[in-house]
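ugh ok fine here u go
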Amino acid sequence: MTARTLVVLRHAKAAQPPGVADRERPLTESGERDARRIGAALAELGLRPDLVLCSPSARTRRTVALALPDADVSFEPSVYEAYADELLELVRRSGTEARTLLLVGHNPGVQELVGMLAPGDGDGGFPPGAFAVVETDDEWAGLDTGRVVARWSPKDR
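structure:
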């Protein structure tokens, strides 16, 4: 039996309006639609996170709000601009209660984290709104490896 499931999600497509700080960039109209589709895709896969670790940027917050409006979300400043090893450390510190954890962040960190945990999985890419489902037999505190059991991208659907 799999001990833990980590869903690694890149925020949905964001706009780049002039004069708006990167942290405050909103989702585009297609990003808003895709964020709702992310929620439907997670439900279709039977994935309901016990905990969501999310970057505090406007685009990640909105992605989570649309995808999982009732989720238990912890906004973690360290997720914004984090490298893969920093994201892994955050997951390791998440405690033992959560069986399914959703990490919502930014590229390149989220894509590199999946590659770090499942190096033989191939690139797969991480366009905006994409997620990978990584199963592991490790406890969060000792997370080192996993296997990608599903991927989803709005570009593929």
